[in-house]
Amino acid sequence: MSKKNLVVMFGGPSVEHDVSVITALQVIKNADASKYEVLPLYWTKEGPVVLLRNRQPYTTVQSLIESNTRQPVTFFSGGFKAQDFFGKSYENSVVIPCFHGTDGEDGVAQGLLDFFAIPYAGSNVRASAVGMDKILFKALMKENNIPVLPYQVVTKESGVEPKSLKFDFPVIVKPAHLGSSIGVKKCDGIREVTDALETVFELDTHALIEPYLSDKQEVNVSVLGSTDECQTSVTEEPLSAEDILSFEDKYLRGGKGAAQRALPGGEKNGLKGMASLDRRIPAPIEKNQEARIKKQAEEIFKVCGCSGVARIDFMIDKKTKETYVTEINTIPGSLSFYLWEAAGISFPELIDKLVDIAEHEYKKKAALMRTFESTILQKDI
């Protein structure tokens, strides 16, 4: 039986580039070698998309992105071609996008794959764009009566004055189109807000200001499937060392030693990505509350039009017992494998399911009528 080409596409011109590399390495290491010919397709920070070739196993970040052979690729309908001496073409492939952040998780890469009719795991262009844009996401949630925290949109041109601020201090300032907690800051006064906005506008065109919940509990859950059918993982409570969950909490908790811990099933030679975050699994919440969050997560997944695997983050106000959805991650860090492992689905099995979903969604799309005969061009203009 011939192996299927599994293209792991990652990198990109994003401030979350390095996180993407870690997720990709985890997928490469956990894909079943008896089923897949794994092809790492790296979107470099400089721009070119290259196929990485290395005779040695990809066991570390360095062995992956510092591969001896980088072959630029060109895409064609149904696949891509390596620009090497042999000019080998790769068709009948399924792509697992492992991008995080702009120009990858936001629909850009998905649009490229759609244009060239290449099947891929994960959400389509529309769902990816909504998931990355916190303003659009909140508006969509409100339209569907799903509670979100109140918010204020700020641009560099509009700025914010003390009188125009809608909330009492402290507040949270965050970029509208970034993830991994980059650029997120808790502010106790207008001066801190101004400084935080300056940082945000170096990274993004829009900022969000939200009220800070001092007595809160964060709960995340992953969803796997499509709008036809989906399932939820176990829940988790991410633990933060500060007032807000930071980039360091998510990816660097425990110092250099912790950051070099083993990948799932691997040796002590790689990064754990989101798996390095301190967490409680399952989240310590009441059963009825857990059931409501899982049900709402499935609803959000379908309302956004997602497919593949996503992670949806919630926040519980302990004072009022209200639950708010904070965001959806259409390509979650580490593909949330740790939540699925706790639910009885191994990382290799998760990859298999993503491939199956990708092929199913591609067939649905391919069956749609795209053109029809018309006499409009026969008429004089």
3D structure, described in words:
With 381 residues, the chain is an alpha+beta fold. The protein folds into three domains: 4-120, Rossmann fold; 130-145 and 214-239 and 278-366, ATP-grasp fold, B domain (D-amino Acid Aminotransferase, Chain A, domain 1); 152-211, ATP-grasp fold, A domain (Dna Ligase, domain 1, 2-Layer Sandwich), CATH 3.30.1490. Helices cover 29% and strands 25% of the residues. The chain is built from eleven helices and 16 strands. It has helices at 17-30, 61-65, 108-115, 125-132, 134-143, 190-203, 247-251, 255-259, 287-303, 337-341, 347-366; strands spanning 4-11, 36-43, 49-53, 69-76, 79-82, 89-91, 93-97, 152-155, 171-175, 185-187, 206-211, 216-225, 230-238, 279-280, 308-317, 323-329. The strands form three sheets. Strands 6-5-4-3-2-1-7 form a seven-stranded mixed beta sheet. The chain has a five-stranded antiparallel beta sheet with strand order 14-13-12-15-16. Strand 2 (36-43) and strand 3 (49-53) form a beta hairpin. The protein is globular, with a radius of gyration of 22 Å. The N and C termini lie far apart (56 Å). The model is unreliable at 254-270 (pLDDT under 50).
From the structure above, extract its key features:
single chain; 381 residues; alpha+beta; Rossmann fold; D-amino Acid Aminotransferase, Chain A, domain 1; Dna Ligase, domain 1; 3 domains; 16 strands; globular
